[in-house]
Hints:
Blueprint: E1 9-16, E2 30-35, E3 53-59, E4 64-70, E5 76-82, E6 88-91, H1 93-96, E7 105-108, E8 113-128, E9 148-149, E10 154-155, E11 168-174, E12 185-192, E13 197-198, E14 206-207, E15 211-219, E16 228-238, E17 242-250, E18 262-270, E19 276-282, E20 285-287, E21 297-302, E22 306-307, H2 320-323, E23 332-340, H3 348-351, E24 353-361, E25 368-369, E26 375-376
Amino acid sequence: MAVSVTLLLCCSCFATLCPGVTWGGSYRRQVFFEYNPGRNSSEINPSAAAPNILHVRAVGANDTIHYLWGTLGAPSVFMVYTSSPNSSLHINWTRLGLQDPSTAVRIEPASAVVYYTAIIFSRVFEYNDMMDTADMSQVPASSFYPPYQLEDFTWDNVNATLNRSQLTAQLRGRNATGHLFGNGSFTFRIAAFEGSGRDSTLPRLLHTANSTKLEFVIEGIEPRGNQSRFALELIVLEAKGVQRELSLCRTIDDEYTPTIFQMDELVALLGNESGTGSFLQWKPVAYTSSQASLANSVPARHYSLRLGRNQSLPASSVAYAFFGAGLPGGTRVAVMNVSFGGPGGDSYNSSRYISCEVMLVMPQPRAECMGDGRWTC
């Protein structure tokens, strides 16, 4: 296994989608939030789970980035970069409720689609770290509890959390049959951006108009062990010809995130001269309090990628509505685990809170790590 979660987890991530997208401090987009776009109640399959989909449309002068977040099945985000400022999302709600939702989601005009990818958040692992290694790969299988399968969770209505002025929303889920949850939850907090800037709170990730931020939070869940740690598993789907690669950049600049001298990335490498597609970018740190500070920071650790379609995939996800439930042979699959916490007794039990942030970045030139240890664009 490749992921572990700690006490209180808040993780934010930025994702970028396509190469060639303008990068710069003055570049701006118009951002729109739509809940269950185009839904007509007569189109809904009555036997299907209640729809809970958020469409984030970020419109530039000559292009559009579409983000489709959903909790039909395992929570996921489908991201598309198009070369048209007028491209639009269409959902066949009747087909979306079927066991095979293939082609239920499309972008028009199809000729404007330059790049697309999807991320599925499939499972959360919990293990009893009695040896205090904070390393999932060193823990015996007997120390792991049955993982939380996120496709089986009940998710709050995302529409109730939309803040269109702040461009934020959240997906909050609970294990409806689990007595360990009570008021506890797993939450995915989403933020979009019209322009460039840096978060005012730790880890103070840098964002642009081509980014969205994801913060993963574990809060208030009853631990099953005396030294419980948690880990999140995510699955990345790519079209044929695109490969994923883990990389890191070491830097001496800790001005924004004290004591953190590294930036980690999960990069999509295009099989042509287009260069880099989307990427996830994060600082390897999590926090065990909702008021993030240096005092309550703990390490966030990623594990090696597992490649290939022989992985354990969720039975359903909104992402399959574009890629297909059967995952056609051209689809590339990469699975990664991320764990939170380090040796020294900072298990989940003491705080019962963990958060970690990631940036999801769409096609654009990446920030480069220069020789002086500073990130520049």
